[in-house]
Task: structure prediction
Amino acid sequence: MMKNSDRNILLWGLTLCFAVLMSVPYIVPHTGFLALFGIVPLLMMERIASLSGTRRVWIFHYAGFLLWNAITTFWVCNATVGGGIFASVANAFQMSVIFGLFRFSKKYLSGALPYIFLAVTWIAWERAYFDAEISWPWLVLGNAFAGSIRTVQWYEFTGTLGGSLWIWAANLSLFGIMTALSDGRWNGWNIKAKCAAAGGYAILLLFPAVTSAVMFGKYEEKPDPLEFIALQPNIDPYNKFQALSQQQQNAILEEMAEKSLRDRKNDSTAAPLLLLAPETFTNDVIVNDITASRTYRRFASFLKDYPGVNMIFGASSYEYINSPERPSHTARQVREGRWVESHNSALMTDGSGRHEIFHKNKLVVAVEKTPYPAVFCRIDDMLGGVMGRCIGQDSISVLHCVDPRNGESIPVGCAICYESVYGEYYTGYVRKGAKVMAIITNDAWWGNTPGYRQHLRYASLRAIETRRSIARCANTGISAMIDQRGVIHDPSKWWEKDVVKGTLNMNDELTFFVRFGDVTGRVCTFVFWLLAAALVVRLVVRKRQ
Result:
């Protein structure tokens, strides 16, 4: 009989092992395979605790989830200490609730059903989390393969939640074999059963990875090039306007663009090119009167000398509304009868003076967005207006790069920063017609931590899911070109002024994931509700007996 102290050491050791194994794939590239058995220590901890009658098991699994969140996303504290702590604590709490429901289901469901319930509940939660008012899906299990893209080329069919399902299936299969060995059931199986169990597990591990490797090797992009230049001005966002005026920042960017475009000046025969500047580069754009922006006028004037060059730049934009009463919960009062709404926007222009604007939809909670505005905007008013109140568009729209030689308009999707974490949402750009994607971002808030590297790698998953090339422009890095297989080309260095040039192929074909959306998440959600109903029925029947 194991002593309580020895048992607790074992339980804590397994909990720590789980947290480390599940954290490494999000931090170290090419280690996604660890997630395929990283949950097993947590399942072992739960089994040992249950068999030994250990009380307050929630402490162990909550601690494991909290460590996993802290190790992988501690860098959020560099931008906001309170927000970083809340993100880890709250996200771990949700994970722990799911695990607690699994432990509860073991009282009423038998055999493998509680473990299936655990997997589908987790994936159903991940899917719901993408659309929640307070959303932080950074640690979706399928994101563990963001640095191991050669193993998940089939995301074009399943999306990221297909990776989550693979991880759960692999972990539960291995755990099943281990428990069969530990309780002696394995010895009672005949040779065919043993071969089926071992062979099934091997196929589960190898088939997705081998299939992906074949897809990676055989995938060929159709030649349909568009040139890109991503300008990385490397301006410290914490000291953005204290050290430099907007006009000085514009001058820096214009000088970088001019050096990059010297061979195209006044060349009316040049092919179209898209120039990118990072998220929130300027703060002088008024949605009601875009042409009043000095930044817009300067860039539009500059582009007159460069036929065929289009430009996307990020802007903190504002829309003024005249109304005797507050027009919305998020509006801030400027003066009596005058209100302002804020946006995080991408603005497209060229030398002709045309312009298009898109407002970011997936906004960072508290920093950009006040959740449940009917309630929290009132609280925020009492606190002096400390939360962000940006609002997004009602639906996704694309921007258009124009070729002046033939008037052809090329639809380009522009995801702004955090939007590149949301797989099914991101497909909306492609369904709207985008043949190629741009991502503009500003990752400097987190400092030189794993955060900006994780964010870059998540863009690779979006490229695979949609088979759309991506030009990524980041204020302080990492800017890069990403092909349709998710391979990152010519990445810039962190915290250095840089210019990244590249030619990316466009694509107008739709992947299964783009056409049909997150089938994996929907199926798992359906199975979750079936098992939840079965659990309720068992609970009611048990109480009546």
The two ends are 35 Å apart (CA to CA). Residues 227-313+347-358+395-505 form a domain with the Nitrilase/N-carbamoyl-D-aminoacid amidohydrolase fold (CATH 3.60.110.10). Residues 228 and 289 are 28 Å apart (CA to CA).
